[in-house]
Structure formats: structure tokens, C-alpha cells
């Protein structure tokens, strides 16, 4: 046989077949031509049904069905024999039809902001290549890209140097930081665990993301040892309250080790006063972690980066480009100011089968041992390609636009009867009440709120019903 | 204005522009036609350069470059202004060229096994839709799919019922299990943490995956409290040794709570004797977790499922369809026998902004609070579409084929001079030495191994050099 022999030739030469345990080893595994054709046809559907309709306000956000109904519509059952390509393509159509179009201009749920073509292409590339970023030999390009992106993010934070790792999200990043702060506080915990130690205590605001509680319980610290600090009327942590709680913890004989400030809270979009919090951390020798999962993107904007004033004093930062910057779920980095190898020391398990120290290249590029994962997706790459495409200026415009839209919405709310603004937003979150005409004259009190709640619940279900009807709005939806 | 107004019309009507903070709010965010064209052109490159070449043995596995050289070739720097589409497409080409083709028939690194067109299409769909599976209202289809897939996996484990959650990988699944076992052992740990408790101890084999150590340190248990149980000459945990260690731990006054058996170890592919281990767990009231990240796929094969005999007695199982079954990184489920809501009780944080209890549909479909993540990828979907396409029989053939190939390789090794089989494999891992002619007559001893190691290191670097040359092999490579 010669080089480049094609599949048809192989089939004709079946007499050379190597049969082991009933399997013909040297036959083609599947018909790759048919497989490629299937991919091509599916891509056409994706192009037409998702991508081309992504920004189209006249399309539906979602063809809503209740769980039991949707189960009947979709043929979910997996069977012994496979389905035809035709049936599979129909299934793909159905999946798309009944899924929420999260990039739709009228999709207002949870920190989404539309579609980005560049990060999407990057994601298609990595799905096709299916890499895992543990070692340079398996992921040369993606490890270099991750290093570059992390350096750039560190620059925007304002550190001279640092370290970092992309991981499955803001929640996991907060866990990384908590464990790292604990390791810095007492490196022995890695080997000995927490059992004989005093009670470790960490501080975060009442308005923090719920991942703080999840992290504290997962890491064996316990949710009761998260001391929630009071916030002011705008949702910002009150530094004096933090000081008090640190002192209380010390008096109790527990071991304070970490303050988690939030830059951009999930519901109100509030930014904790980082500079004043950093003063307290310095005074008490506490690690300062900033959860900038949502607010970190403001660092890109010269107009809005002052929201995170003082962030350069943090020891670690979680920053989620998959939220406002549209890098696609999942894309999040934990960034660390320390550049002396703390991250690696804290996380390494030194697996000999993967991280040999005597390879023929510089093994400092084998960053996988900084991670809690083994297989790891190249999430930095989609942020990188998007950044290359738009430039820093383009990303900046994206942030400025989101905040300008929020500002516009606030002005509209103020002008319109029946709308009540909850508070002047700092960021892209706009919190307001809609008071229906029947309640506008009612006195504020428990009965009023009960009624309002009932009506809003009802409208939510109505709204989902409406999703199925074509939108007839007269101008482009405000995206935030 | 009317419904369906197109972008060009919008531009002409710029006099209606709404300007806030220097941003025109009602203009198009970007030229979506150009964006779509970019996606189309990039898809063509992906199709030609990755997918069509995926199975082609005459193509290169990787165009290897050392880190410093590759940095010079790729234009990694992100700048203030963006790049042209033409430049970006060239970048995409370069990224592909210098990346490892993990689906190549001659790519033998780390638990990969080729390309699957169906899971790939599923991944393209979810990247385009960019969902997050926390609540039914945001991910109706993907939550139902996850439920179906988990049910099916549970069936193959042999449980009557159960629960589960897809998460970023086998390492994270092992962490989930460890935390869950701990919660079952002492639910108070969730709130109180570990500080005032006796030392928790868990048991796993010497041949276990390194994620066990990572999990123990991350969860505050401490790596020293992982008791590594001796294995036999085939790499299997020795039950008598486990029994001894559990007794030792009890004598020390520590608190044994968990045994992590491995079904398919990373290096040797060994299966721990689950039935005997389950007996010991029952006797001592210990949680049995089976790390079947790698070996779980054998459950699909009627011929090979006996490797996991006794797995139905486990309390939890980690199973990674992104390894042998080719579902694409990341795709892994933690499966739990308990069906009384243990998973939810252990992990929930009850965030009010996301998991309201008075929605207008059955909120038991809002499974996000079982997770340590907030945003979560719909990883079950790619496994589902692949399963729909191939049927159980097709998946079974994939497993049977992998094991038949391993068997074939073993026979070839035995026949050829200079090759030394380390042990008869149970699974797809084949461990052997190649002894170069110069060493074949040398006596076994430290000097021999030192020399052999040096030569193999050198050959590894040579092999990477060779990757860049066209392969001239005479038959299809053996994939495993
Ligand atoms: C402030 C904040 N931190 C953390 C997170 C969690 O990020 P992820 O969803 O990537 O886990 C969120 C998500 O909404 C958030 O708003
Ligand atoms: C036995 C075993 N467990 C766990 C893992 C980790 O899986 P993941 O890479 O998905 O974290 C591996 C990976 O190689 C493994 O072989």
C-alpha cells in the first residue's frame, strides 16, 4: 500500500482485514464522507436558524413549552439503534426551535448581552480541535494564548506582574481564591486539612454572589463562618461594619483570613469601596479577593474603570469575560497578584504521568498543575480572538454602550407613569417596579406588596406566553 | 416604523438617533452581515483544515514548534484597534496549523480516541445558542436532555433510581462525590465546617487519579488524610489492605468516611474489585465512590461491562463520556444512588434571584442549585445527540473496537524483538517498553534503566520532530 491510500481502496482490500474479537481493526471506523456531510448540513441549519436570526428582533426569544409538553414534542429517548441523518437534522431543528435564544435583543435574563461572531468562531475551532490545556505538548497554541490573555488582564487590573488560570466560571474562581488565601494563611492545610485548626472566618457583603456560600461549604470552611457585612442603601459593603466584624471574629478566637469584595453585585450592580476595604485588609493582614465576575469588564473602559478604583490592591480577582463582554459560556479567569509560584504550590499534585520534569522543552509552560481540573477547555482563546478582532477600543465601546443603554432605560423609567426606580444604578443593572394601574392609588404596606407580587408572577407567565407570539414592538429593544 | 425593519432603513433614519453618553443607542451594534460572512468563511476553514483531515493518517499530527519560536510565528499581542477579517482568518489558519490534531489516528497522548461528528454538531449548536443550564426557563431543552441522559447512565450502572449532575470533568466529579460523602457522614459540616471535627479520612488506591489528592486538599480534608491502599501486580486495590487501613484509621481515632475505588486507572487501566470493596464499605458504613471517569464507558459493552462488576453497589460514580466515547471535552457526570434529594441538600444555596420557589412551572426542573457552578454548560447534550445517532449498539461497538485494538497491539508487542510488555492489559491501556538494540544485551539494574530513560527522552523529542514530516507508514494506525 502507498501513502494517501483512500477509503475505497481499503474496502476492496478487505481480504487483508485484521479481525480481533469480532472487530475488523483496519477498516474505516465510520463513513467519514457521510459524517462530514452531516456536519455541513447541520452547520447550514445553525447558520440560518441561530446565527442569522440572532439579532433579529422580529424573531421569537423562545417557543415556550411546559416541561411535560416539551417532553412529548422532543423524542428524548436513546435507543439501541441509531437514527438517520434526516431524523437527526430534524432533531437539531427542534432543539433550536424550543431553546431560548440567549443572544436575542429581547432576552433580558441573567447577565447576557447578545452575540459575538469572533468568539463564536473561536469556539467552533476549539470544538473541532478538541484540545485540553494541561501541557504544552498537547496544547502549544492555547497555552501561549492563555498566558498572553492573562498578562493583558493583569495589566488592566494594574498589577506589575501576576499569575492566573482560566477555569469553569466565576463561582469556581471564587473557590480558587478562597483556597489560595487559606493556603497563604497556613500552607500546612494542604496536607493536614482543617480538623485541628481554629475556625477560619471570611468576610463578604450581604449582596455578594451565592457562590461565596457554596465555596465556603465545599471547601470545608462552613457557611456560618462567612460573615456577611452590611451594605449601604446602594448595596455597597460598609467598611466600618467590616472593621467591626473582623474585630468580633478576633475576639471570638477564630481566624479571619479573607475578605471577598464584590465589584458589580449580581442583583444591584453595586461596587464595594475597594480602597477602603484594602486599608482594612492591610491593617489586619487579610487576603483581599475581588469578585469582579460581573463588574470586571468595566476595567476595559476608560470612562467606567473608576468603578473599580483600588482593585490593584487586591491579592486576587475573578473576572468573567463570558458575561458583559460576550465571550460565550464558559470564559472566566482567576487572577493572582503573587508571582512567586503560590498558585502552583497551592494546587499542584505533581502527577508523574503528565507533568514530567525532564521534557525536552521549558516545562514552565505545562500550567495544568495550577488547576483543580485535569482535562481543561481552552477558554482563553475565544476571548483572545474577540479581542484581536475588536481591539481594546471595540471592547471598550461594548462596555460603554451597555452602560449608556442602562442610563437611557433609567431616564425612560423616570418619565413613565407606573414605573418606580429602586435606585440610581452604578452599572448595567436597572432595578425597578412596574405598578399596574389598579394598584397605583393603594397605600404602601404588606397588602400592597402581596398584591403586586401576585400580579407580577402572573405577568411573568403571560410574558412567556407572549414569547411565542411575534414581537410587534416599534423600535429596537434596549439590550442590557 | 414597521415590524421587520432592516438595518439599512435604520441607518437612513439616523436623525431619530438616541444619543446617550456619546453612544448611539438605536444604531446597529455591529455589521451583522459582515459578521455572518466571517463565520461562514471561518467554518469553511474549520471544515477543510480540521474536520476533513481528522481521520487522514497522511496529515501531520502537529506542526511542532518550541514555545519561543511559536510565539514569534503567531501574532499574539492584543492591540487597541482590531484586525481585518482577512488577517483574522489567517490567524485561525495558523492556530489550526500549529495545534495538535487530537483526533488524528496517530495521536496517542492521554485518553483521546478520534472524532465524532454528532457530538461535534451538538457542540456547534450549543456554542451558537450559548445557553446556561441553571433554570428551566433559560434552558428548557437542555435540562430535559440532561435528565434523560442521567437516567440512562443510571440504568447502565444498575441502580433502580438516582440523581446526578454534569460538571466540568472527572476531577470535579470526584470532588463532588467527596463533599457529598462528607455531607452524608455529617450534614452539619455544610454550616459549621471541619474545624472542630475529628480528622476525616478517605481511602483510595495507590494507582488512583491525582484528582483525589487535589480534591482532598481543596475540600480542606488534607492530602495526608488520603490513605493510599496497596495494589496488586495488576494495579488493583487489595481489599485486605483496605480493611487493614480502615482499622488503622479507627484505632488512630480519626473518622473514616469514604472509599474511592477506581474503575479503569489512568496509567494501567486497572479495575478495582468493586464487589469486595463494597463489602468492606458496608461493614464499616463507608460511602463507596467509584471513579469510572475512564472505565465507565465499558458499561455500554455487553462484552466488557463485567470489568465493573459490583458497580451497582456504589453510592456515587464519576463517568466521563469525553474520554473513550468521544463526546468532546468537557462531558462528565457525577451520578448518585440516593434519590431523596441528598445532592440538592448538600449543594443548594437557595439564591433568591435565580431559584424562586413560586414560578409558574414545576421548579424541580431548576436543577442548577445542585451544582457548585452558577453558569453551566449543557454538556449532556453532546452525549445525547451522539447516542441518538449511533444508538447503544454504536457506542458499544466503539468500546469493543478500542479494546480489540489494544488486544491486537499486545499481540504485536509480544511478537516483536525489543518490545517488552509491562503487563497484560485489562482495558485499552497498553504499557510496554521499547528497548533499543544497544541495550538489549545489558543486564537489568539501575544503570540499564538510567540509559533506557535517557534514550526514550531523546526519542520523544525526535518523535516530535518527525510529526512535522509526512507520515509514510504503510497501513492505518492503531487507535487506542
Ligand atoms: C458577582 C458574581 N460573581 C460570581 C458569579 C458566578 O459566575 P459564574 O456564573 O461564571 O459561575 C456571578 C454570576 O452571575 C456574579 O454575578
Ligand atoms: C481515572 C481517572 N479519573 C479522573 C480523571 C480526571 O478526569 P478529567 O480530566 O475529566 O478531570 C482521569 C483523567 O485522566 C482519570 O483517568
Quick structural gist:
With 480 residues, chain A is of the alpha/beta class. Chain A is built from 14 helices and eleven strands. Chain A folds into three domains: 26-107; 123-388, Aspartate Aminotransferase, domain 2; 392-463, no CATH class.
Describe the model:
2 copies of one chain form a homodimer. By secondary structure, chain A is of the alpha/beta class. Chain A has helices at residues 7-12, 32-51, 67-73, 85-98, 117-129, 140-157, 170-185, 189-192, 211-218, 239-251, 274-284, 342-347, 380-415, 446-467; strands at 19-20, 23-24, 163-167, 200-205, 226-229, 255-262, 287-292, 316-319, 332-336, 419-421, 432-434. In chain A, 40% of the residues lie in helices and 10% in strands. In chain A, the strands form 3 sheets. The first copy, chain A, has a 7-stranded mixed sheet, sandwiched between helices. A two-stranded antiparallel sheet of chain A has the order 1-2. In chain A, helix 10 (239-251) packs parallel to helix 11 (274-284). Chain A is globular. Mean pLDDT of chain A is 90; it is low at 1-6 and 465-480. At the A-B interface, helix 2, helix 3, helix 4, helix 5 and helix 6 of A face helix 2, helix 3, helix 4, helix 5 and helix 6 of B. One pyridoxal-5'-phosphate sits between chains B (111, 169-171, 209, 211, 262, 264-266, 291, 293-294, 320, 332) and A (373-375).
Amino acid at each position: 500500500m502507498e501513502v494517501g491510500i483512500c477509503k475505497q481502496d481499503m474496502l476492496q482490500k478487505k481480504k487483508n482485514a485484521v479481525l480481533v474479537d469480532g472487530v475488523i481493526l483496519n477498516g474505516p471506523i465510520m463513513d467519514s464522507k457521510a459524517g462530514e456531510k452531516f456536519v455541513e448540513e447541520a452547520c447550514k441549519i445553525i447558520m440560518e436558524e441561530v446565527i442569522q436570526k440572532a439579532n433579529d428582533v422580529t424573531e421569537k426569544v423562545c417557543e415556550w413549552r411546559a416541561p411535560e409538553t416539551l417532553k412529548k414534542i422532543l423524542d428524548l429517548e436513546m435507543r439501541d439503534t441509531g437514527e438517520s441523518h434526516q431524523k437527526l437534522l430534524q432533531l437539531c431543528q427542534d432543539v433550536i426551535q424550543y431553546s431560548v435564544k440567549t443572544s436575542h435583543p429581547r432576552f433580558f435574563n441573567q447577565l447576557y448581552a447578545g452575540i459575538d461572531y469572533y468568539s463564536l468562531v473561536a469556539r467552533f475551532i476549539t470544538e473541532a480541535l478538541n484540545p485540553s490545556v494541561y501541557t504544552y505538548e498537547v496544547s502549544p497554541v492555547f497555552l501561549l494564548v492563555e498566558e498572553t490573555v492573562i498578562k493583558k488582564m493583569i495589566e488592566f487590573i494594574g498589577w506589575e506582574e501576576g499569575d492566573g488560570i482560566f477555569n469553569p466560571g466565576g463561582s469556581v474562581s471564587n473557590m480558587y481564591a478562597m483556597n489560595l488565601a487559606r493556603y497563604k494563611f497556613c500552607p500546612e492545610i494542604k496536607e493536614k486539612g482543617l480538623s485541628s485548626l481554629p475556625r477560619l472566618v471570611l468576610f463578604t457583603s450581604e449582596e455578594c454572589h451565592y457562590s461565596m456560600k457554596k465555596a465556603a461549604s465545599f471547601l470545608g470552611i462552613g457557611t456560618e463562618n462567612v460573615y456577611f457585612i452590611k451594605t449601604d442603601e446602594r448595596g455597597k459593603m460598609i467598611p466600618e461594619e467590616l472593621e467591626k466584624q473582623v474585630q468580633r471574629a478576633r475576639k471570638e478566637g477564630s481566624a479571619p483570613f479573607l475578605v471577598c469584595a464584590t465589584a458589580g453585585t449580581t442583583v444591584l450592580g453595586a461596587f464595594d469601596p475597594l480602597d477602603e476595604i484594602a486599608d482594612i485588609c492591610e491593617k489586619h493582614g487579610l487576603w483581599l479577593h475581588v469578585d469582579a465576575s460581573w463588574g470586571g469588564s468595566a476595567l476595559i473602559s476608560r470612562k467606567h474603570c473608576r468603578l473599580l478604583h483600588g482593585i490593584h490592591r487586591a491579592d486576587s480577582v475573578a473576572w468573567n469575560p463570558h458575561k458583559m463582554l460576550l465571550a460565550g459560556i464558559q470564559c472566566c479567569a482567576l487572577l493572582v497578584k503573587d508571582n512567586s509560584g503560590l498558585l502552583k504550590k497551592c494546587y499542584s499534585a505533581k502527577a508523574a504521568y503528565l507533568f514530567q520534569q525532564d521534557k525536552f522543552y521549558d516545562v514552565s509552560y505545562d500550567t495544568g498543575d495550577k488547576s483543580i481540573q485535569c482535562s481543561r477547555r481552552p477558554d482563553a482563546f475565544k476571548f483572545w480572538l474577540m479581542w484581536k478582532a475588536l481591539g481594546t477600543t471595540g471592547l471598550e465601546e461594548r462596555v460603554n454602550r451597555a452602560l449608556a443603554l442602562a442610563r437611557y432605560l433609567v431616564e425612560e423609567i423616570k418619565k413613565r407613569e407606573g414605573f418606580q426606580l429602586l435606585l440610581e444604578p452604578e452599572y448595567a443593572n436597572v432595578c425597578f417596579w412596574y405598578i399596574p394601574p389598579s394598584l397605583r392609588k393603594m397605600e404602601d404596606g404588606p397588602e400592597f406588596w402581596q398584591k403586586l407580587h401576585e400580579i407580577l408572577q402572573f405577568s411573568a407567565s403571560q410574558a412567556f406566553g407572549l414569547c411565542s407570539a411575534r414581537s410587534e414592538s416599534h423600535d429596537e429593544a434596549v439590550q442590557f
